[in-house]
Amino acid sequence: MESVAVGTAPADGAPAEGVSKAQLAYAFVRERIENGTYSPGFRLVLGQLARELGVSPVPVREAIRMLEAEGLVTYERNVGAQVALPDPGLYAHTMDTLGVVEGYATASAVHTLTPQRLAESRAISAQLRSTLDAFDPVTFTRLNQAFHESLYRDCPNPHMLDLVERGWRRLQAMRSSTFDFVPGRAAESVAEHEALLDLIERGADLPEIETAARNHRHNTMRAYLALHRASAPQPTETTAAADVGTPTAGTPPSTEPREGNHA
After folding, report:
1. Residue segments in the chain with a per-residue pLDDT below the cut of 70
2. Dihedrals φ, ψ of 116, to 5°?
3. What structural domains does the chain harbor?
4. Sign (positive/negative) of CA torsion 70, 75, 80, 84?
5. Residue 231 pLDDT
6. What is the pTM of this model?
7. N or C: which end of the chain has fewer CB within 10 A?
8. CA nearest 83: which of 221, 179, 175, 12?
9. Contact 262/104 with Cβ under 8 angstroms?
10. Cβ atoms of residues 226 and 181 within 8 Å
């Protein structure tokens, strides 16, 4: 694997000594997928990326394979590599799981929250509300993640924290922002954040806090899936008759989140 010496990276940031060209290309493309520069369906042309990075196509090809293994990129014959399109089924399963583990982590961290940390969370929530008039889904999502992290990051269970962070990374791999697809959900999300903070500040029972945090995540999932179903092409009567008993392509499996305490 080729390595990059200090100072040979593109202008937007030199790598640490010994970082391989493939790792540099991987970080370069992944950052642009996560910040929305490369949106779902964006074609990744190896030669163009290699020129931008000042490397040969070989490490770029290796980086694309790494991103493909993570689900960030897909490759099709005669089309090439492109940023993966959101998969509603995978999104639903990821959000369902994240709701469970993040709800638990948030409730578990409550006893570690200081007045300063709660003030930080309130300030982020206020920033989120201030973005609603001139809405930018990418900025909103960045602040949204910061808000949730401020509540769960001191969870005493490191394995649970790892599961939460994996869930967030999977979401980032699928889309830059749910709120880009369901902008009307943003105001509801802010109200739920404020309600969650109210529960924590008044000393509500941990199961109540966990349920509120979990339901908040699942409400976003339901809003996205409802929009997906509404925008999906409806089969004709002939097609519907022919396909009785066969799920429509692209329709996610039943993903209604389970009710009750998942602690």
Report:
1. 1-18, 173-177, 180-181, 231-263
2. -65, -40
3. 21-83 (1.10.10.10), 88-229 (1.20.120.530)
4. negative
5. 61
6. 0.63
7. N
8. 175
9. yes
10. no
